[in-house]
Amino acid sequence: MIRVAVIGASTMTRNLVRTFNSLPGSELYGFSDPDFQCRRVMAGAYRGIRVTEKAAELIEDPAVDAVVIAGGTGTHHPLALQSLEAGKHVFVEKPMAGSLAQAEEMADLAAATGRILMVGHLMNYHPAVELLKSLLDEGQLGDILYIYTVRVNLGRVKRDENALWALAPYDIAVILDLLGRMPRDVSARGACYLQQHVEDVVFVNLRFSEGVIANIQLSWLDPCKKRLTTVVGNRKMAVFDDMEGAEKVRIYDKGADYRVDFQSYEEFLTLRNGDIRIPRVRMVEPLLVECQHFCECIAGKSRPRTSAEQGVNVVRVLCAAQESLENGGEPVALA
To answer: CA-to-CA distance for 116 and 131, rounded, in angstroms?
Structure first.
């Protein structure tokens, strides 16, 4: 049994506590948060676990095998370093750090100590995203032309971070995983409507090699909740709509075909409207898959799919987007 201690108080923290408590391969050993009310609730809901105000007490406890950190981006770096130095495996929520230097320091220490450092890029474990990845790997969509994502809603306005840092890590991690490479440059534009110096709406553009581009639309000031990922290839196109109950992925046999031996302008380009296929997606809770994978990595059965390296790359893109945001959308080169 892998004894897990969870640090932090948030909606995601409560879900992590619930999930690790239910996994057959893990034991929820302890919980820490400075908020008394939160500790009281957790102690009542999960009797027998060690509940403490001070995270260091759990980190230094020799009975703890792994530390799960989900107390806000500002806490990730110091708690992860402390946990790795204490010989613990670490699961850290996204984004793994608030700066590239911090993220790289965390990854370097994990490598030096030989401990697992996995980043909570939840959407990478979604069965629909795994299906998209298999479609791309198998070449069913052809050469990828562009990808765009939409992550908007009305609410959950934050004061300590903008929409870029709060929402974009999900989509950046998915795009990097689907394409298997880093963008050449990043640009971003946004606006502050509800609070000064906190962007509520952000548009991020990523340019990759071979002409591939990606766009990410982010907002917590929108009339509709949307969670969309669209992948356009030169053979077929696919759409993942996470707001759909059952038909989450649709594959469109659509595209534009060019003729070399055309005689007229009308023959030069023809649009193809073929069938729409809706594959069955076997739904499993992504968080359950993610936490189970973390335990398997600790047991030596697998290597982290959302590794420290991927976490560093996501932070690298976030920092470039933030720099561009602060400079009026000026592209920032990454390669």
So the answer is: 26
Q: What is the DSSP letter of 307?
A: B
SS3 content of the chain, % helix, strand, coil (to 5): 35, 30, 30
> For residue range 270-318, what is the model confidence (pLDDT) as tens digits?
677 888 999 999 989 999 999 999 999 999 999 999 999 999 999 999 9
Contact 113, 332 (CB under 8 A): no
d(CA 26, CA 89): 13
Q: Phi, psi (5° rounding) for residue 90?
A: -130, 130
Burial label, 88 (beta-carbon count in 10 A; 0-12, 13-18, 19+)? buried
- Element (DSSP H or E) covering residue 290: helix 286-298
- Exposed e or buried b per residue across 265-292, where buried means at least 16 C-beta atoms within 10 angstroms of its C-beta: eeeeeeeeeeeeeeeebeeeebbbbbbb
Which residues of the chain carry a pLDDT beneath 70?
A: 258-270
CA distance 273 to 153: 32
What domains are there in the chain, each with its CATH number? 2-115 (3.40.50.720), 124-286+316-333 (3.30.360.10)
Q: How is 58-80 classified by DSSP, letter by letter?
A: HHT-TT--EEEE-S-HHHHHHHH
Which pTM value belongs to this model?
Answer: 0.94
pLDDT digits (tens, 9 = 90+) for 155-198: 889 998 999 999 999 999 999 999 999 999 999 999 999 999 99
Tokens 């046999």 locate to: 253
Q: What secondary structure does DSSP assign to 99-149, as a single string?
A: SHHHHHHHHHHHHHHT--EEEE-GGGG-HHHHHHHHHHHTTTT-SEEEEEE
